Amino acid sequence: MQLQHTTIMETGGMKGRRKELVREALHELLQKGFGVSNIHSEYGMTEILSQAYSKGKGLFRPSSSMKVLIRDVHEPNKISKTGSGGINIVDLSNKDSCAFLATQDLGKCHADGTFEVLGRFDDSDVRGCSLMMA
Question: Model-level pTM greater than 0.70?
């Protein structure tokens, strides 16, 4: 079967269930395994309704209902629109509430609104909806 016109959407890490791979290695493995060149990524959590998507190179663009901010790793109340630190999410898609999350993800926000996920804080809990499956 030829999948040359297919785009694969990767949605996150292994959550400790398999060997952890950096995103570039995972995308290379998927490209070789499926014989495709288009590997995109999704960033989002079970707790929020909004997601961000990347068409490659690790740069995510949040949806219009999602705002990504960076918190200083040493002063968590210091928040900025650009720079590196902990990723904070504001999700405006919830009808009866507004989700504000301080994730354990480390990232970098750029002036054009894109952001990168650089990893996780040391000793942070392994999280993700894939852990709910038996």
Answer: yes
